[in-house]
UniProtKB/TrEMBL annotation:
Protein name as it appears in the record: Phosphate-import permease protein PhnE
Gene: phnE_3
Domain ABC transmembrane type-1: 93-278
Family matches, as InterPro entries: MetI-like (IPR000515), MetI-like_sf (IPR035906), PhnE/PtxC (IPR005769)
Compartment(s) where it occurs, according to its Swiss-Prot or TrEMBL record: Cell membrane
GO cellular component: plasma membrane
Length: 291
């Protein structure tokens, strides 16, 4: 018996080794085919877009730096006026930040309820979990600019369409993030509260939120950074704020490039400031730091 087991051992090792090498080769083949398909799709998509574009990409590639160079040169010539221009557009910056803040707050509240209603083990109506998840998917899938264009057509230009559009998209995005956090919560506290006759809202407030609040706040702050950029972009379609002023300055062309430079400086400084502040508080929340 010992001789038979010893003689069969090398064969079993060889079998395992050959099977492993075959799996490695198959994975390499599949990876190579996937990469090849990706490259083919990228090249074909680029060629189609380049053919349909008003101007060819390669023909205009040498002009990429012309506009930044014109803006910088004119801004440098009128550098003495930049502080006054930054003060002039500061109210528009406040409007942009307000749009981002209000939309983030509304979106976070909506995402909170969508996540709790769409999480297994926490949902008030378990049969409706797929419905609430599909609602959050739809809200997350539609870009803010599309929602803003529809709302501008209905409500007219201004900050309200931008706020609603960003809030809808934020609610869908945060609902997904919050759901992933909520699925990892300890249900013992929820079960204990349920045994005492607590309502669903009381179970969520007292049993779930204390566990997930740091991650919820961290994701909300991260989304606030994104919404500042989104509110500035939506200004290009007439949603108000700093983006609207930037579009006007850029559309005017030479002669107002110094205004465009001042707006760029304000927007860049604001994004960097809030990025650093939110990153600091997010690290404190996730790492459990209190100092």
């Amino acid at each position: 018996m010992a001789d038979i087991s010893l003689s069969g051992a090398p064969q079993s090792v060889q079998t395992i080794q050959s099977s492993y090498m075959a799996q490695v080769q198959r994975r390499r083949l599949y990876s190579g085919l996937t990469l090849l398909i990706f490259v083919i799709l990228m090249v074909s998509g680029f060629n189609i877009a380049d053919d349909r574009n008003a101007g060819g990409f390669w023909n205009g590639l040498h002009q990429v730096g012309d506009y930044p160079a014109d803006v910088l040169s004119e801004a440098w010539e009128k550098r003495a006026d930049l502080p006054a221009l930054m003060a002039r557009y500061f109210p528009a910056l406040i409007e942009t930040v307000n749009i981002a803040a209000v939309s983030t707050l509304i979106g976070a509240i909506g995402g909170l309820f969508l996540s709790l209603l769409g999480t297994r083990g926490l949902a008030k109506w378990p049969r409706l979990i797929p419905l609430f998840r599909r609602i959050s998917d739809i809200m997350r899938a539609v870009p803010e600019i599309v929602i803003a264009l529809v709302l501008i057509f209905v409500l007219g230009g201004g900050p309200v369409p931008a706020m609603i559009a960003i809030a809808i998209h934020t609610a869908g995005a945060l609902a997904k993030m919050f759901s992933e956090v909520s699925e990892n919560t300890d249900l013992k506290a929820v079960e204990g509260l349920s045994s005492t006759g607590a309502t669903w809202l009381q179970r969520m407030l007292l049993g779930v939120l204390p566990q997930v609040a740091p991650n919820y706040v961290s994701y909300t702050l991260l989304r606030f950074e994104i919404n500042i950029r989104a509110s500035a972009i939506l200004g290009f379609v007439g949603a108000g704020g700093l983006g609207y002023e930037l579009r006007n300055a850029m559309a005017w062309g030479p002669g107002r490039f110094d205004e465009a430079a001042a707006i760029f400086i304000l927007l860049f400084g604001t994004i960097v400031f809030f990025d650093q502040v939110s990153s600091r508080y997010r690290n404190r929340l996730t790492d459990g730091q209190t100092h």
